[in-house]
Amino acid sequence: MNLDKIIAVRNNKTVYRDGERCLKVFNEDYSKADVLNEALNQARIEETGLNIPKIFEVTMIDGKWAIVSEFIKGKTLSQLMADNPGKKEEYLKMFVDLQLDMHSKTCPMLNKLKDKMNRKISQTDLSATVRYDLHTRLESMPKHNKVCHGDFNPSNIIVTEDGTPYILDWSHATQGNASADAARTYLLFWLSGDIEGAKGYLKMFCDKSNTAMQYVQKWMPIVAASQTVKGNEKEREFLHSWIDVVDYE
Fold this sequence. Notes:
alpha+beta; 5-stranded antiparallel β-sheet; 3-stranded antiparallel β-sheet
């Protein structure tokens, strides 16, 4: 295997290109269970017919776990938006259409979004009162079984030269309520500093899916609480301001 060409470096993993293959190599201390779960998610999503990189194998390289999948040549949607600001609306439309297509799929073997959110809320350092309110709000939300990405943002979309979009990174995939997935995408736009993009995205998602904006907004304290578990100190104050909108009835 050729690990000379680095595509991306993250906190706990490095992504390499080896010819027509992409190697995601995790740090030594990364959870084996999480690596295998991500590979299983990706294999299951392949079966839905969505455009995603096909998985080839899970292996070990120099004592580190690695997922080997198809290399997709192209540019991320975030790169295209930055390079062509005049076409941002067009790219946003592609982005939302892709998310809605994903939400039209089901994948019964995926973990359930509500279970994951309940677990994340329990792991936060929020007060018992706030955690109780968030758990109660979550339980009151309608139960759906749509494919949810969990980290759907323009940097996880690769567009090939012929204009075909592929969705990357299925480590957070669950089945559940599409509006929870949209609330998370809205939050990710905010965290990246693209406030106008966040507003444009939410309006377009709600218009195209015929969803009330208030309904998506009811998910925001829940997804903000789950995001605090990641422990990014700079984000925490901002996320807490979103959690505080929980209405105490």
